[in-house]
Amino acid sequence: MNIKEAKETIQYTLQAYFQKDESGYPLVPLRQQRPILLIGPPGIGKTAIMEQIAGECGAGLVAYTMTHHTRQSAMGLPKIVERTFDDAQVSVTEYTMSEIIASIYACMEKTGKKRGILFLDEINCVSETLAPVMLQLLQDKTFGNQKLPPDWLIVAAGNPPEYNKSVREFDIATLDRVRKIVLEPDLDVWMEYALFHQVHGSIRSYLEAHRDRFYRIRQEDGKKQFVTARGWEDLSAVLKSYEKMGFPVEKMLVGQYLQEEKTAAEFFSYYQIYRKYGQDYRIRQVLDGSLSDAERETITRMAQEGTPQERSMVLVFLLAVLDQNIEQFFRESQIQKVLTESCRQLGIFRENDAEKTFGDWIESREKSLQIRTERELIRREERQTEEAVLKILWKIDQQAKADHESGQEALNRRLKQVCEEETKRCDEQQERISQNLERGFAFLEESYGTGAELTLFAANLTRNDRIRKFLGSYGCPAYTEYEQQLIGGEEVLKNRCCDIAAVSYTHLRAHETDQYL
Questions:
Q1: Ramachandran region of residue 141, left (φ > 0), alpha (ψ -120 to 50) or beta?
Q2: Among the listed residues 274, 275, 304, 298, the one whose alpha carbon sits nearest the alpha carbon of residue 286
Q3: Residue 440 · residue 298 · CB < 8 Å
Q4: Radius of gyration of the chain from Cα atoms?
Q5: Whether 256 contacts 242, CB under 8 Å
Q6: Closest by alpha carbon to 47, among 59, 33, 30, 65?
Q7: From first to last of its 517 residues, what are the pLDDT tens digits of the chain?
Q8: Which residues have a Cβ under 8 Å from the Cβ of 153 and sit 6 or more positions away?
Q9: Alpha-carbon distance 204 to 316, whole Å?
Q10: SS3 for 459?
């Protein structure tokens, strides 16, 4: 099962376990609510999907890496208490509350979420003394004498034995009480994730042509060498950061994330060529129309004479720039919508208490945001939008005070004016992006004619959720013109895509100058 299918399975399980019948009893009885056991290689995304599931389902999340814990932290510490049995007072050993159980109650109290996921990573690598406690948890949902709260799903994860010498095999009695899911790396699923999260274009285009390099773990000359999905994503983040700050990207840096020498060396050479092409083609200027006729002619001729691999990179550059522009447009459009809604909210606020000031209203919004953030009731994107709106509102308040204006009408007028300016700016931005799309189609047609490159570009536009949403909302005449070419020609397109995108790196080395290798 791939990670996307596992995520869907856990979401369904969560909803099924939480569902109650007419009498208020769980549809799946508590004793039959089996924990889920994820077994898969490291760096595949097991922890990441837990965070996504909890956020999307509105559930709490408590996560532990069990190799960091002892029997005492899991079960609690022993303590002596006095008890009376048959009129005789005796000393009895009991346990303090388990740290893990206590964390669940703390999460419930902090967030107000009574349902959630207890995620226990590396569960099959625990110490010998902790192993029986973990088995008891999986079998009975109990730590010592303390049960998990109702409506909390246990999800445990571990690596197969070939990836970790510390792995302990579960016996049949334990496996018969869990839902075991075996995970496998899946590049196609990861590429969907990579596109949405804007993983560096060099990584996406490299893996399109070198699919066998996505996930590799092997031992050579007594040395472990590996490349994981986590490694590619973390490398993407550092590449973007280095590029933004103008730092040189060295081969050693790549090798710190891709810990297989051949893949690291090969990708580093590919990255250098990718960067050179990115600079040579000046895609942002192509799309915004700022090139002179002579510059555009030079770039068009370079594209015409480019290798198949180079053509593939040009498509990646075009899609990456468009995606970044459209993501920024939707982010700013959401800020504009929330800001516009603020006019109505301000009116309601003053109706309830006419004595309150504009600053009081902003402070009440800040407090509400803080509470929702602390209780994990707001997603990161929503929080960032609200923070941006609050920044604008405080600026309005400060400018009004500087101009010695404090009346309601003056502040309403200022807020309305800012809303109108933001709306106009978003409209202008939308128009620019529409023109960028038109120029992208025109550039490809001038460079490659109406062949596979143009059709592939149009097809990839619809595979990107953000771009597809933009096209659905605002349209694009050039895209509409080529849309029909995508209908009924999927197999032809697929074959041609392979010709363009899967050219071997050996071919590239043979045809490009050595100074970039």
A1: left
A2: 298
A3: no
A4: 29
A5: no
A6: 65
A7: 999 999 999 999 999 998 888 888 888 888 888 899 999 988 888 888 998 898 888 889 999 888 777 777 777 788 898 988 888 999 988 888 888 888 999 999 888 888 999 999 888 888 777 888 888 888 788 876 788 888 899 999 988 887 777 787 887 888 888 899 999 999 999 998 998 888 999 999 899 889 999 998 887 777 889 999 999 999 999 999 999 999 999 999 999 999 999 999 999 999 999 999 989 999 999 999 999 999 999 999 999 998 888 888 899 899 999 999 999 999 999 999 999 988 888 877 777 776 778 888 899 899 999 988 887 778 888 999 999 999 999 999 899 888 888 778 888 888 899 999 999 999 999 999 999 999 999 999 999 987 788 888 888 888 888 999 999 999 888 888 776 655 544 444 444 444 444 433 333 343 343 333 3
A8: 10, 13, 14, 17, 33, 35, 36, 116, 117, 118
A9: 8
A10: helix
Asked if 146 and 104 count as a contact pair (C-beta separation under 8 A), the reply is no
* CB 438, CB 476: distance < 8 Å: yes
| Alpha-carbon span 352 to 356, nearest angstrom | 9
Helices 3-18 and 46-57: crossing angle in degrees, nearest 10, is 40
Task: Name residue 276's amino acid.
Answer: K
63-68 contacts: CB < 8 A, separation 24 or more?
63/119, 63/120, 63/121, 64/100, 64/103, 64/118, 64/119, 64/120, 64/121, 65/121, 65/122, 66/120, 66/121, 66/122, 66/123, 66/125, 66/126, 66/130, 66/134, 67/122, 67/125, 67/126, 67/166
